[in-house]
Amino acid sequence: MSPAHRRLPALALALLLFGCASPPPEPDALAATGGLTAGWVDGQAFRHRTYRNAAADDARLPLHVYLEGDGLPFRTPTRISADPTPRNPLALRLMLRDPAPAVYVSRPCYHGEAAAPGCSPRLWTTGRYGEPVVASMAAALRRLAGPERPLVLIGYSGGGVLAMLLAARLDNVERVVTVAANLDLARWTTLHGHTPLSASLDPASAPPLPAHIAQLHLAGGDDRQVPPWISAPVAAQQPGAEHRVLRGFDHRCCWEGAWPALMDRKVHPAKLGR
Question: Could you give the angle at the alpha carbon of 231 between the alpha carbons of 159 and 217, nearest 5°?
Fold first, then answer.
């Protein structure tokens, strides 16, 4: 998630502080260290950074799609980032712990693309989950996986919001997994006094996903950025969805270390907590 940013008088005021983009090297370096293959895929009006593991081309198996958190929309409470790319991408770290066929797909205007045609700070601030973002990511996933390969959408933090929104418009999603996700945007922005995400789509106000899509929503019992009560009501509205609260976990700890066990579903429910 972004650093806490307080309500701004107007987005236009913050746009005056917008500077030139300078892509940070951290995600590319992390992916290379983990043996992932970097690339790009065209979406709808934007292109998206991708990282694939060696198993990703095995079309016989479902493809795990990792969706990152919001990164760094704001550098300070009143200064918009020139490049919102996450400096410590947790979703990418989770993917590195997953042996299944997997691909990481970025949002529009991230990974050095902030100055690309069509990009503006709106797409990583108030519109970070807006229609242009979701439509472009959906188009990118259709190109990556085709119309028939089953998809498992795995989203960390704000990436969990996108996982829910994407699942509603892709026909081949078989499962959604969210991690510490702010699934109710209105409640989350109110909690922190953030600027309302007025140009975004909110899973809390969308119809439930189809019943054939399995859902697992994971929340940290010690998470103050996105407390479990943010995601729990949304999960309760979804058919057959499971909401788990993990004791001792917060917004970043301790997902990476626990991820192989969580993905294998070998962790005893009593140890996960409720």
Answer: 65
Whole-number Å distance between alpha carbons of 18 and 120: 9
For the whole model, what pTM was predicted? 0.89
Of 14, 201, 12, 20, nearest to 113 by C-alpha is 20
Helices 158-167 and 131-145, axial angle in degrees (round to 10): 70
Chain segment 55-96, per-residue pLDDT in tens: 999 999 999 999 999 999 999 988 999 999 999 999 999 999
Contacts of 14 (CB under 8 A, 6+ apart): 8, 74, 78, 79, 80, 121, 125
Q: Centre a 10 Å sphere on the Cβ of residue 7 and count the other Cβ atoms it contains.
A: 10
Average pLDDT value for residue range 210-230: 98
Beta-carbon neighbour count of residue 229 at 10 Å?
12
What are 266's two structure tokens? Answer: 């070998």
DSSP codes of every residue in 110-167: -TT-TTSTT--GGGGTTTTTSHHHHHHHHHHHHHHHTTTS-EEEEEETHHHHHHHHHH
Reported as a single tens digit per residue, the pLDDT across 149-208 is: 999 999 999 999 999 999 999 999 999 999 999 999 999 999 999 999 999 999 999 999
Angular region, 101: left φ>0, alpha ψ -120 to 50, beta rest: beta
List the domains of the chain with CATH numbers: 33-267 (3.40.50.1820)
* Coil, strand or helix at 43: coil
